[in-house]
Amino acid sequence: MSNRESRSNLLVQQGGTVVTRWSVLPTALLTTKVFVNAASFLRIRQDDLAADLGRETEGEADPDVLDDTRIHPEDYDVARKMAADAMEYDEEDLVDVPASKAVADLFEDDVNKLNDLALDDFADELSKVLQAPKRLALYKIRDEMKQPYKEHRRQFVSPNPIELFTMLTGESTRTLDSGLIIPVRVVRVAQDESVLVRLDCGIDGTISHEYRTDNKVFAKLKQGQTLQAMVMDVKWEDFQVELTTQENLILGGDRERRLVRPDQYFDQAMAEQELKSQEKAQQKKTGRPQRIIKHPNFQNIDSGKAEELLSSMQRGDCIIRPSSREDHLAVTWKVDEGIYQHLGSFTHFRLLAGLRTA
Questions:
Q1: Alpha helices in the chain (DSSP H)
Q2: What is the pLDDT of residues 177-200, one digit of tens each?
Q3: Nearest CA to 352 among 333, 325, 329, 332?
Q4: What stretch of H or E contains 332?
Q5: Tens-digit pLDDT profile for residues 140-187
Q6: What is the DSSP letter of 60?
Q7: DSSP readout, 238-274?
Q8: Which domains does the chain have, with CATH numbers?
Q9: Dist. CA 248–CA 202, nearest whole Å
Q10: 76 near 110, Cβ under 8 Å?
Q11: Are the CB atoms for 227 and 184 separated by under 8 Å?
């Protein structure tokens, strides 16, 4: 009888008991590819196995304590090496003993000995031999041997109405809450003169008659028209929003509600000090202070760099940059592909005033 046939009859000889993960491979229970993918989830509890067999097994059917962990069979040798090092076993101590004896002894002794292993050095050695990174796998193997099949997932908690609302709409209390002004699209005007609208997230809202604007604009409302409305109340459970378009509320804005509060741990004084230090270093390097101008087209670069940046832009795009003349600015604009014009020099205020009028 061949070795394969012998292993195929193994389950029959043991009364249908799966003793090791490997014992299912040559049988019809799992194919090779399924076994490789599912081996870590095939848990063989050693206590239940001992009670089921009621006797000691020998040979290739010997139980393996690693089958009672999530460690994949392809990493058994690594786990055994880690256990042997943690138990300070020599190679002579592991001759003519079960393959995972060091692991079994570690489980009975103290799995916290694994904390003393230099896993980073071990990972470097393995990566040279296996030509693959193993650092993450080593730490996972260590954690699994310390607490086999530990539940790492947090206890499931049903989402509250606001969390459920956020999951389904993408809106939260930071983007949709009382006092915030948002755009809404008119769906229709009801018979009671309330206005039914739809928000960008897809849910419906209502502007009741008493929350409508005082002017006559609603008499001209059309389906699909966009209005600016302030949120009065959000009914999270019903996915409904109450809004108002009263001018005295809309004109007040919602800047205070949308303002991002500064981090209480941010050291503003130190940040300003570092900025001043950078300006002094730039001035010492170039002989003049670095310009800080809040304009979308301003770049603190020279003419050559300006042409380089404009090469990937559209015709007519321009860059405002420092001029060679002190307290002046220049403009480089793209006339055509490979053609640039440098205009200057302008004073700071005269250039920006010209841009505004343009």
A1: 3-8, 10-13, 32-38, 46-53, 76-86, 101-108, 119-130, 135-146, 161-169, 247-250, 255-258, 268-286, 303-310, 348-357
A2: 999 999 999 998 888 888 999 999
A3: 329
A4: strand 328-336
A5: 999 999 999 998 888 889 999 999 999 999 999 889 999 999 999 999
A6: G
A7: TTEEEEE--HHHHTT-SHHHHPPPPPTT--HHHHHHH
A8: 3-146 (1.10.10.2740), 161-258 (2.40.50.140), 291-357 (3.30.505.10)
A9: 27
A10: no
A11: yes
What are 141's two structure tokens?
């193997």
Structure token pair of residue 213: 């604007």
Task: Tell me the per-residue pLDDT of 196-253, one tens digit each, with 9 for 90 and over.
Answer: 999 999 999 999 888 887 655 555 788 888 888 999 999 999 999 999 998 888 888 8
Q: What is the sign of the dihedral through the CA atoms of 186, 188, 189 and 194?
A: negative
d(CA 200, CA 203): 8
Look at residue 10 in the predicted model and tell me its pLDDT. 54
Q: Please answer whether residues 179 and 231 qualify as being in contact, where contact means their C-beta atoms are separated by less than 8 angstroms.
A: yes
Whole-angstrom distance, CA of residue 356 vs CA of residue 13: 91
The C-alpha atoms of residue 28 and residue 24 are separated, in whole angstroms, by 8
Question: Look-up: residue for tokens 């009028």?
Answer: 357
Structure tokens at 9: 């009859």
User: Residue 24 in contact with residue 61, Cβ under 8 Å?
Assistant: no
